[in-house]
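pinging the channel bc i need a second pair of eyes. not urgent but kinda urgent?? the chain im working w is below, pasted from the shared doc
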Amino acid sequence: MEEIGTSTTAEKKAMLRPSLKSDSEFNNYQLWKQKLRENCFKRVRQDRSRLLWKCRLSSSDDESSRLLHNQDELDIVFRDIVSDELNKINNDDNDLLWNDDLKAAHEGDCQDILLEMQNLFYQDLDSHIDTWEDEVDHYLARAVYDHMHLNPDNNTNNKTFGEQIWCPLCKQGQLKDTHNLIYCTRCKLQLTKADELTLDFLRDRLAEVHMEHLDRGCRLKPRFCIKTKFNLTALYIVCEGCDTFEVVI
């Protein structure tokens, strides 16, 4: 009888004692959930300008209509972000264990995070669009200034000056031309002139490739380089951020 009583008491104590494993799983999951939320929100803030570019490049002229038109695409982007960040956390945390309760909580929390991501994206969107468009205008103005500059000295008696084009390679020298060559006054840039190649044409091409690069949604500053392939020397625009590598001229 004493053995039975002792066994019953031990069983009751075991039932009353909290499960260390369950507590550990729950605490680990809470940390994991907070990390997922923070990483997803960070990605939304970082990608906001790129997503706005996608909306801006749609067919509608009205900004709100563009956003509605792209709602499905934005939802896919948000889900991809959650999935990507979830995989990163799972790869980093090999000790994360899933029971049925945690799996159900995970699915519900992911839906909550998606809704919060949408709210974060649309929060104060009108004011952000104005700021973003100002930044775009500044970016374009900076690009134009880097490569196309009107000399402030418009003295008609000084015919050696006038419209100047800064070198896209060194950003310091000016581009000049002869009857068969376009060259930089500071670096080794030299381009053989074809029939259509003039300084005006090169200036227009530099503006075009800057616009094309910006239209891709990339905000990194591209660089330019000279490469010779098959005995042909060409000027290229390069951006590692969006894998741009194209001939300028």
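so Confidence is low (pLDDT under 50) at residues 12-21, 147-162. and The longest helix spans residues 20-56. — does that match what u expected or am i reading it wrong
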